[in-house]
Amino acid sequence: MIQPSRIYLAVAPIDLRCGIDRLLVLVQSVFGRDAFDGAAYVFRNRSGTRIKLVLGDATGVWLCVRRLQQGTFRWPRPGESLYEIDAQQFEWLCKGVDWQRLCASTKDLAHTL
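User: That's the sequence. What structure does it adopt?
Assistant: Structure tokens below.
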């Protein structure tokens, strides 16, 4: 079972033809993170139609790929190189839902209560 300690989105798109080893190098060299820290790192292609998730821990490495049947994945705007999201936001992201808009409306609702 995949249960990441944290979930990070790599904001800039990459060439998703790369495999596990190249993604682990990106996590370490570009983001300065320990690729085997139990966190999930999610990358997207330029068109936003596919994502790859790499997760390394003390036991091994997971590599998962997801493609939507239609539409694109909603992604944060350029700024930071990594963007942290929670498990609920990741679930919405994987379904192709605009998770940023849902999060904003949820915060507004909580603020009004």
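Confidence is low (pLDDT under 50) at residues 105-113.
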